[in-house]
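tool=predict chain=A
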Amino acid sequence: MSEIKLPLDQVLQGDCVDTLRSLPEKSIDLIFADPPYNLQLSQDLWRPNLTKVDAVDDSWDQFPSFEEYDTFTRNWLTACRRVLKDTGTIWVIGSYHNIYRVGGILQDLKFWILNDVIWVKTNPMPNFRGVRFTNAHETLLWAQKEKGARYTFNYRDMKALNNDLQMRSDWVLPLCTGSERVKLNGQKAHSTQKPEALLYRVIMSSSNPGDVILDPFFGTGTTGAVAKRLNRHWIGIERVEEYVRVAQERIDGIQASVGDDAIFASSSGRKARRVPFGRLLEIGLIQPGQSLYLGKSGKIEAIVRVDASLLCGELSGSIHKVAKQLLGAPANGWEKWYYVDEQGDQQPIDRLRKKYLEMEKNGR
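tool=predict ok
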């Protein structure tokens, strides 16, 4: 049976649950979900000057009962859980109308909540009737698939983004307005378009360049637009044909960011995870008796022994010890020793360490 390939950097039209079922299991690094809020609006809203408020009254936000909304929520979250890698995380945004129900279902499905983040709106819509407090925030829940699993959090990146102060869980950002708001015939193309600044923080904090980010309620494509800017892959699912077209046109119009990989790589400062060289032998990425070469010149050869030590003439020891003895200075063996790949090219063994970490991340 051939392996199902991910439809990277595409908008898929269809029901999110059905479409998610067509994607490979454990293939997504990060999910951002902006589901219907089930606002339960029962009447039109009017401003004091008797102009009608352009509220969220779309059919996709209307559910007959809480029970049906809960069933809908459980179904799409279950489908998301299947495609999310064990090391992956999910963000869900909502308001007081739905976020508590969503949070309970997340926990029922064994997601582990890492944070709730409050998006404080600098320009919220007033409460025109004067019967409640002005609703000036929305809540984002950030959860990992498996409690205790290794997950991505670019702490130092977020600190740098916040003027070198630890970023807090209250994000003060404006609503999506002005030129950023996607419009059709002078009107808002989508009633709940989120600001790119919000997605910038979500994607920067919990993914890395080259990761795959999925949005099951793609709307006008904010997730894809920001992912493209940040050198990530994206997949959008959207059932409304007009939104699909608008999102694709929007993303096509964005110039992909260019530059050295260092521009997009995390500045978290975390050292590469320690991996014993012997682990590469255990899983077959290195073979006993294989030759390694000190530096690209390939003039000095060592043989890998079955216990993961190197044998080079009279010298024997770890990849670090033998490199140090040969060079006469402390050395990182991962960077100094090279192997010959299938194409006959010399590659640093650190490449195999990274390959192993990627295999581990993907659960293979």
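The first strand starts at residue 10 and ends at 13. Confidence is low (pLDDT under 50) at residues 42-56.
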